[in-house]
Structure of Roadblock/LC7 domain-containing protein:
Amino acid sequence: MHLTPQHIQWCEQELEQIVEQSQYLDGAAICTTDGLGIVVRLPASINPDHICAMSSSLFGIAAALQAESQMDGYKALLVDAQSGKIVITLFKLAGIELLLVQLGKAAATLGALNVTARGFSEKTAST
C-alpha cells in the first residue's frame, strides 16, 4: 500500500487545521515511521528533517521498550520540558503506519495534546 496524492492532500488540510485551531501548538508534522516527512507545519527555526528523523528514532526506542516490558498497543510518546511538550502519536492511513508529531507550547497540557491526537487518529480511521 502507498499514500496517494489524495491522502497527502488530506494530511495537509488536516494538519493545517490542527495547527491553526490550536492555541497550544507551535507546529506539527506527519512523518513516516522511518523518518521521512510527509507534511510539516513547523516554525522556520526548526529543521523538519531532523524532527521527523528524531521522532522516528524515539518511536523505535519506545516500541522496543514497550515490547521488552511486555506491553501491547503503542499509542504515544510524550516529552514534557519546561519550555514545551512533544507528543508523538502512531496512526494508520491507507494501511500505512505514520507518526503525528505535535510541538506544544509551554502552556499546553498533555491532555489537550492527547485530545488533538485522538481526534486526528479517529479521523484517519474513517479515511
Summary: The longest strand covers residues 84-93. The first helix runs from residue 5 to 21. The chain is about 45% helix and 30% strand.
